[in-house]
Write a structure and sequence with these properties.
The structure holds 2 protein chains of 2 kinds.
Chain A lengths: L1 H4 L2 H52 L1 E4 L3 E5 L3 H8 L3 H29 L5 H15 L2 H12 L6 H7 L13 H29 L3 H9 L4 H12 L1 H16 L3 H6 L11 H11 L4 H26 L6
Antiparallel strand pairs in A: 1-2
Chain B lengths: L1 H34 L15 H8 L4 H32 L5 H10 L9 H11 L5 H10 L2 H13 L3 H9 L4 H12 L1 H17 L2 H6 L7 H11 L6 H21 L1 H14 L1
Helix pairs in contact in B: 1-13, 2-13, 3-6, 3-7, 3-10, 4-7, 8-9, 10-13, 10-14, 12-13
The chains are: A mainly alpha, B mainly alpha.
Chain lengths: 316, 274
């Protein structure tokens, strides 16, 4: 009895000491917190914030690849970039490529996700088969398809010849449309599994009871898809669309390797133009930085618009 | 009878989906077989054999040199990602400190700035830091762009650990650091494997960052392969290119198949974010 009550009188006396200790603890916690967060802060500052400020500075400066910084010239770089003969064609091509890729990839990924949704052994195998291409690098995948499309060694040209579509010696990458669609096929192959997995996670988050209730109410398969699956999948679809649009707007590796922007600059994307301005055509880092800033601003705006329109909840 | 009917009824499904799987696997199988098959313009003209791989071994510094560069870049990127994201995730999950929310948001903001738009200033900035044309520089840049996902992932992993676990260690006289090393690291291991895997796949396969930041002897394998293809004027050695693709792909596919569960888990938490 006495042992259980004896600590009680001490409680009141303990209060000031406790808050003191708590303050000390919080102080130490802040110190420790900063200690653990320092590497993050350092890396983010040195390799993210500084380059971000530097790109703004360079975009307003006369800065050539070999000559270095020769002082401010704002807004000359921006004017020169927009007046460059490849600027509008590359913007137009990038947008076209983005719309085509996103439309095909997202609808196909949704179909695939619904196909492999149930967990059976066969569907598990299917999932793995669809996911294997996502382990390849974009550069390796592009090199792979470069060989696949080549009339010398690849099976594509002979197959098109047999179907009577083209001659066996014609390179499918030789025309603008051919190059565009060949690249879209490569990207769909490489990324279908990726977006399938994202949508699959969303599909599995829809509770079974909702489907059962709809079926009891006599809803048809199509109605269930349009009225239940699609609306409830909206967050996942939004995430996939945003990722796909952003990735496609920034397309570089696939065109750099497959088409080098050709034929005649017709498959040049905006990000490729940045590289070309910096190291190939103009060797002007100021102009390249100005185009980087334009791309960055466009991306931020496009993503904000997408977030606003896609993330709205279904009942709004 | 009904069972037979069911099997017959499902045959179109198996044929269709089997065909689909085949289409997705075909390019990889085709490259692997072609790389050892005879083809004109390569070193493997008649019969099956390893001629194309021999071409790779003898290309400039040899495939081992470029593979070594790739390994170093990947190692720097993976190690940096693991260490920084673990410490950062621990800080964000367990401590209160001024500027915490700001720093976390700033880290996530990297997602909004794709590296394609900051590579031009990075060329200049890394030179100022003395890291231009170095493998370490490339590895660090790649690590920074892994940080949003990795830090987020580790923060969630640490937050999911019950506080009692480390409090027991703290009461036993451990500091927060030894509590982290001795207790928490074991619990968040799945998260570490996931972010390590993603960092490796990104760094191993990256083409654009090394294209901007390194040249010559310091090229990793993807960049060396693309340049090899371009250097032989007129005649492209497709055989050697295919062999190179196989060399690049094998580690990724093996890692993917072994760690598939962790790969999928990465998507689970990635989707939570959206």
């Amino acid at each position: 009895m006495s042992t259980t009550t004896s600590p009680r009188p001490g409680v009141a006396a303990d209060i000031p000491r406790r808050t003191g200790r708590r303050r000390l603890r919080r102080h130490r916690s802040a110190l420790h917190g900063w200690f653990y967060a320092t590497p993050t802060a350092a890396l983010v500052t040195v390799l993210f914030l500084v380059p971000l400020v530097l790109v703004l500075w360079m975009s307003g400066a006369d800065w050539t690849l070999l000559g270095g910084n020769s002082g401010a010239n704002f807004p000359d770089n921006f004017v020169e970039v927009v007046e460059n003969r490849l600027f509008w064609p590359s913007v137009w091509f990038t947008l076209k490529y983005t719309v085509i890729t996103t439309a095909i990839l997202i609808s196909m990924a949704l179909g695939l996700a619904m196909l492999v949704q149930e967990s059976t052994r066969w569907r598990g195998f299917l999932r793995t088969a669809l996911l294997v291409p996502t382990a390849l690098g974009l550069a390796s995948a592009s090199l792979l398809f470069y060989a696949l499309y080549s009339p010398q060694v690849g099976p594509v040209s002979p197959a098109l010849d047999r179907l009577g579509l083209t001659d066996a010696n014609v390179n499918v990458l030789g025309t603008t449309d051919g190059a565009l669609w060949s690249t879209v096929i490569l990207i769909v192959w490489r990324f279908a599994g990726f977006f399938m997995l994202l949508l699959l996670v969303g599909l599995q988050g829809i509770p079974h009871e909702v489907y059962e209730a709809a079926r009891i109410d006599g809803a048809r398969t199509w109605q269930i898809f349009a009225r239940i699956t699609l609306p409830l999948l909206r967050p996942s679809l939004a995430l996939s669309t945003i990722l796909c649009v952003t990735g496609s707007l920034l397309a570089f590796d696939q065109f750099f390797i497959l088409t080098k922007g050709g034929p005649d600059g017709s498959t040049m994307t905006v990000v490729q133009l940045i590289y070309s301005l910096a190291f190939e055509s103009k060797r002007d880092l100021g102009m390249a930085a100005a185009l980087s800033v334009i791309v960055l601003a466009a991306l931020v705006i496009i993503n904000i618009v997408q977030l606003k329109t896609l993330r709205r909840s279904p009942d709004e | 009878m009904t069972r037979l009917n069911r099997i017959i009824g499902r045959t179109p499904f198996y044929v269709l989906t089997g065909g689909l799987a085949l289409i997705f696997l075909y390019p990889i199988l085709w490259t692997s077989v072609s790389s050892v098959s005879p083809q004109p313009g390569s070193r493997q003209v008649d019969g099956f054999g390893w001629g194309n791989y021999r071409t790779l071994l003898e290309y400039q510094d040899g495939v081992w040199h470029y593979l070594g560069n790739s390994v170093i870049i990947s190692a720097v990127a993976v190690a940096t990602t693991l260490v920084v994201a673990t410490l950062g995730g621990y800080a964000f999950a367990r401590f209160r400190f001024p500027g915490k929310d700001m720093l976390f948001l700033l880290t996530l903001a990297i997602l909004m700035v794709p590296y394609a738009t900051v590579l031009v200033p990075l060329v200049i900035w890394l030179k100022a830091l003395g890291l231009n044309d170095t493998l370490v520089g490339v590895g660090l840049v790649l690590a920074v762009f892994q940080l949003p996902f990795a830090t987020f992932m580790m923060r969630i992993a640490f937050e999911a650990v019950p506080r009692e676990m480390e409090e027991a260690a703290l009461v036993d006289g451990c500091g927060t650091f030894s509590a982290l090393c001795r207790v928490l690291l074991h619990v968040v291991k799945p998260g570490l494997i996931t972010i390590g895997l993603f960092a490796f796949l990104a760094a191993w396969n990256d083409f654009m960052v090394p294209l901007y930041l390194v040249s010559g002897d310091n090229q990793p394998l993807p960049l060396a392969l693309v340049n090899m293809r371009q250097q032989v004027m007129g005649v492209i050695d497709y055989g050697a290119t295919q062999a190179g693709v196989v060399v690049l792909t094998v580690p990724c596919v093996v890692l993917f198949l072994v760690l598939q569960r962790h790969y999928v888990n990465g998507f689970m938490s990635g989707a939570l974010k959206g």
